[in-house]
Amino acid sequence: xxxxxxxxxxxxxxxxxxxxVIGAVAIIALKNLIKVRVGRYIKDRNNSYRTKKAVNxxxxxxxxxFIMIVYSDSLGQVTVVLGIAGAGIAxxxxxxxxxxxxxITILTSDIYxxxxxVLLGGIKGDVIDVGILRTTIMEMGSxxxxxxxxxxxxxxxxxxxxxxxxxxxxxxxxxxxxxxxIPIKYGSDYKLARKIIYxxxxxxxxxxxxEAKTYWDVMVKKYLIEDATTQPMVTMIANDNWVEFTxxxxxxxxxxxxxxxxxxxxxxxxxxxxxxxVQLASATFELxxxxxxxxxxxx
Length: 299
Known about the structure:
This protein has 9 helices and 8 strands. The protein is α+β, with helices and mostly antiparallel strands.
């Protein structure tokens, strides 16, 4: 038995195989240990997620290097073959290679990260995972109105970051400008109507305006961009049917639907309380004339 074991160990290929397997197992064990430690010492979810992903990829890269070192004396014999095969593989797997390059770009830049709300490849939703080849998104919209999940999980190749625009709703400035329109009947007290709308905005979104101002000041220093106001703004136009007030405001990108609901509720309640001075308008049609109608009666 010992003689067979000795022959088995002395065989060069078998010995290298044993060393490669043992080394790979040891590297995987070390990789998993590091990932556990990362979860304990890095409390920020985004940094912990990125670090674990990087450790995972680095572990497999070290395994590949280790195996190449173990078989280094045999690599020279197949260099030409590997070169030709590599060119063909690179052409066939160019989409995968670009996706890997996109993954590296995503991890090393501010394009987006897990938790961000994005519009990528025509799909809008929240990023829930960034893999080596694909980004996973919890989709919004489609048959569901507003910024609400529809339940579909979409996986998009990372190569899209090089091919199409990436719309990020929450990166440097986690707020959005939104607006609502209020039709007011002609003859109402327009100054009071404006005050009702503005006061409702201050009460509902005033805190967002102040917080957004801090973020916007950083944006102005970082980019060549206008120093826009984040305070609510009420404008008025007159059309054929009514006086239309538009309220423009800043809101947290995750709370657009809820904030609109609160704004409409507050504004409508105040208009009802002041119905003698301010009235909502609805579509009206004026009949300006009737054509002559001749009626013939047969007796």
